[in-house]
Amino acid sequence: MARTCIMDSDTTVCVSSASSWEIAIKYRLGKLPEVGDLIEHFSAYLRKERFEALVITTEDSLKAGLLPAPHRDPFDRMLIAQALIRDLHVVTLDSVFAAYGVKVVW
């Protein structure tokens, strides 16, 4: 389902700055050593795939910071906040997203 949605030319695919931030941290820590080229050319990859960068706004950060428990991962909390504010679907297997009322695609 997710692959079909992403490949649909009528779908706008957004990639949060939180995702690129998390990827960069995991690369620096050696947890994702294979993504060096992605890190170096991230914007070019987004353009090639017709994906849009989703910047983090002050509204996003306040919403993420004020979300109730149980989820503690700051990157996921940001994705949840951005999805709620913009009424976006999130591609994830993590069931906690749906617990916050986020529309999930997998």
Present the secondary structure layout:
Elements: H1 2-7, E1 13-16, H2 17-28, H3 36-40, H4 42-48, E2 51-54, H5 58-66, H6 74-86, E3 89-91, H7 96-99, E4 103-105
Notable characteristics:
single chain; 106 residues; two-stranded parallel ribbon
Give the biggest beta sheet: 2 strands, parallel
The 3D shape can be described as globular
Computed over alpha carbons, the radius of gyration is 14 Å
N→C terminal distance:
6 Å
> Helical residue percent?
40-55%
How does this model look, in words?
There is one protein chain. With 106 residues, the chain is an alpha/beta fold. The chain has a domain at 13-86. 53% of the residues lie in helices and 13% in strands. The protein is built from 7 helices and 4 strands. The protein has helices spanning 2-7, 17-28, 36-40, 42-48, 58-66, 74-86, 96-99; strands at residues 13-16, 51-54, 89-91, 103-105. The chain has a two-stranded parallel sheet with strand order 1-2. Strand 3, helix 7 (96-99) and strand 4 form a beta-alpha-beta unit. The longest helix has 13 residues, at 74-86. It is globular, with a radius of gyration of 14 Å. The chain starts with a helix and ends with a strand. The mean pLDDT is 95.
Brief summary:
The protein has helices at residues 2-7, 17-28, 36-40, 42-48, 58-66, 74-86, 96-99; strands at 13-16, 51-54, 89-91, 103-105.
